TrEMBL record, chains A, B, C:
Domain Glycine transporter per the UniProt entry, residue ranges: 2-70, 87-158
Entries under InterPro entries matching the protein: Gly_transporter (IPR005115)
Family matches, as PANTHER family: INNER MEMBRANE PROTEIN, UPF0126 INNER MEMBRANE PROTEIN YADS-RELATED
Pfam family, one: Gly_transporter
Species this protein is from: Halorussus gelatinilyticus
Descriptive protein name: TRIC cation channel family protein
This protein's GO CC annotations: plasma membrane
Topology in the lipid bilayer: Multi-pass membrane protein
Length: 207, 207, 207
């Protein structure tokens, strides 16, 4: 799952950078940032040297994702919207939320800390890439995406509360994240804005 | 003071995010980032796991601030400009500058390091939130805000030089930050830009 | 070299901030971020407290660069494009890429980790400053700049592979970075975008 996620995240990031007409160095950086910055932020927050800097295997996957993005752009108009990419991206979201939950629990964080690290691990790379592309992170106003990682991390914590840990808790987290994300893509779920909620409430108040 | 500050900072951040029509996840994230990212950056720089990830009390205050922002937006046009909010925000600025000064001194940093960490602790959250909102951090070009934290941190260092430490030095730092901030709000203090200074100098040169 | 680099980087950053009409606090912050954020990010990633926070010498150089920028702006139209600044900036790029390579190697990172840290050390400050100025980091789409640090870090790794280490490897890294950067400035080197490459390939496909 991690492998699929790294390739999918790097592909999505590199595609965004190509659309902004970044040069090949920029394309590679935005792709790798999308794939690795979430995990690196997690590692910095729990006081570890980021794993991706110490091994070569993961980076090769990221570069493969970047190369795939460049190759597919010649064939497809928007490879990042292809159903296979969306599904792979959802798998990555689940894998990264699970990895974050496990690392945060091992580091002895609070239940909030576990959910926060799961979410940062899953969506931090994409959010960082959006900042590099000079836009607000899409996870803050669009789509039902980061919420899936929040739900996955919460499921991991809840599993721990009822005594389910280890591999089973990880599976619960991954399944929750993946399931809600696939449902969100399929049914077009979105979170409301304060305007939507506020207007509704104002409307009630006025009548 | 820390309690007041966390609630006020989260409220200010969440209000900004609502104005940008972020969804409820985005509103919560920007509010929590405003309240906690300064302290988390401080902890990462001195090589500690951020405190906010290890306990639940502080996060509850942050979420309370976010909820307050949503609630007050229905009642007030701009709750973040209300005198009570401005005063609470100044209290938070003083509390966070003081916390930063103490942590940096304990970590054995230089006098510059203490002032830098006091400032990052106090304004880093707001600056990070502005980056998420896709704008330049307001502390860099507007208002007399970060300067109060710089003065507070410098007062803490100066107190140490003349042999005043511990609680008294902390009180000096907090009073300096709070006093200068309230004066800045009251009298509309601003720092000059290079244009203002440069033009003045050019004017002198031309005549 | 480090001295020249810190002053040149702070000057370039402060000049950018003046152009955006930041106030004097903002000008100092953007100048210092340009000079120190790359090294601070390196230190955080390898789990050290940033050196710049623990000593006063380096910060003094950064503040000198900021003051120089303010002073030169009165005399020159764009001090950051002056040949002396461009050459000093190239020296800084080489010094920082070399420092990053050495620290990353000492921390036991992989060959990718060494190249990544060398690049982050060399261009991270400028990229961070661009984010504060609310623009995409220029190194991602413009100029042949970060690529020189990538080549320098790679040369350091390659030197290690063939048994050349210590001061000689550092000299190879610095010379590679400085040489390619000066050549890039002189001959106007740029990396291609995907559009440039893709269009070429499409053209081949169409005919």
């Amino acid at each position: 799952m991690n492998t699929v996620g790294l390739v999918a995240f790097a592909l999505v990031g590199a595609t965004k950078a190509m659309r902004e007409e970044f040069d090949v160095f920029g394309i590679a950086v935005v792709g790798l940032v999308t794939a690795f910055a979430g995990g690196a932020t997690r590692d910095v927050l729990v006081n570890r040297v980021p794993l991706a800097l110490g091994s070569l295997g993961e980076i090769s996957l990221g570069l493969f994702g970047v190369a795939l993005a460049v190759g597919l752009t010649v064939l497809l108009d928007s490879p990042e919207d292809h159903p296979v990419t969306l599904a792979s991206d959802a798998v990555g979201l689940a894998a990264f939320a699970t990895a974050g939950s496990i690392v945060a629990t091992d580091a002895g964080l609070s239940s909030f800390g576990v959910v926060a690290i799961a979410t940062i691990n899953a969506v931090g790379g994409g959010a960082f890439a959006d900042v590099l592309l000079d836009r607000s992170p899409f996870v803050l106003f669009d789509d039902f995406y980061a919420s899936c990682a929040v739900l996955g991390g919460s499921a991991y914590v809840a599993a721990g509360v009822v005594g389910v840990t280890g591999g089973t808790a990880a599976a619960v987290c991954a399944a929750t994240t993946l399931g809600t994300r696939l449902a969100a893509v399929n049914y077009g779920w979105r979170l409301p804005t304060a305007q939507a909620l506020g207007l509704a409430r104002e409307g009630v108040g006025e009548k």
